[in-house]
Amino acid sequence: MEKEKLYQLRTEATKIKPLINIGKNGLTEPVIEEIRKQVKANRLVKIKMLKTSVEGEDIRISAEKLAEATNTTLIDVRGSTVVLYR
Fold first, then answer.
1. Distance (Å, rounded) from C-alpha 35 to C-alpha 17?
2. Residue 74's domain spans which residues?
3. Helix (H) or strand (E) holding 32
4. CATH number for the domain that contains residue 47
């Protein structure tokens, strides 16, 4: 993705609130399905991940797996917040 578009999406993401919270059960199939629905409806989705939801894995790695599972582009990872784009 080109840098200007990436920067624009990151800026846009700062203005939205997380739509989905991933808890201690982690990335289950219903959670992934809900993320797919939200991405389809909103195109840009912010997700808050509980640190225990990644089971000792780096949040960035989990975010990349999540992007792959939902067929989206990973835009940003800040702390435990992930931004995905359709």
1. 14
2. 3-85
3. helix 29-42
4. 3.30.110.60
HSE of 34, CA atoms in CB hemisphere, 13 A: 11
Amino acid of residue 1 = M
What order do you get walking across the sheet with 81-85 strand by strand?
Answer: 20-22, 44-49, 81-85, 73-78
Q: Is 56 left (phi over 0), alpha (psi -120 to 50) or beta?
A: left
Encoded tokens for 31: 């959670």
Return the H-helix or E-strand segment holding 36.
helix 29-42
Tell me the pLDDT tens digit for each residue of 50-74: 988 877 788 999 999 999 999 999 9
What digits encode the pLDDT tens for the residues 15-50?
999 999 999 888 899 999 999 999 999 999 999 999
**Within the chain, how many helices (H) and strands (E) appear?**
3, 4
